[in-house]
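anyone seen this seq b4? input:
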Amino acid sequence: MREISAGGVVVNHSGEGWQVAVIEPQKEASTAASRQGRGKKWQKMLLALPKGLVDPGERPEQTAVREVLEETGLTASPVTKLGDTKYVYVRSWGDRERVFKIVSFYLLRCKSGKIDDISPEMRIEVKRALWIPLENAAKELAYKGEKDMVRRAQEYLNAHPELRGLNDITQMCDG
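predicted toks r here
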């Protein structure tokens, strides 16, 4: 079984520097911590990047933008593809089938919206969405592949300082 997904590293520049939008999925923290092999009995908060399955007829870049809107409440525009993560997991529901998953991640700039302004239907998947400093994100995120994607985003933003000033006039994010 294969799954193809896409997600976004959504950034916004504020007076404190670059911020990244993350989600806290609706999962038991103790279960998530044990899955990560951290040896902790519990974890305050599991943080992840917004992502989801690519719908039929949809390009991964479109999926990333859609999933970001659905899971964070933010409208964002693509900047560049950061890369793909690949892993295998065993479904914890139904058939317990092994799934080979590929997730394409994109660097996205926040255009508008209010973080965590998501529909009640999405609360089944997302406990909350929040901004965290990009410089801390690799330490705060739960999954190795996502940590790598935020590091790539930092490298890209450091190599493109001109992106910093775009929020001043065109961006209406609550970062």
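Helices lie at 29-35, 60-72, 134-140, 144-159, 167-170. The chain has a mean pLDDT of 87. kinda curious what u guys think
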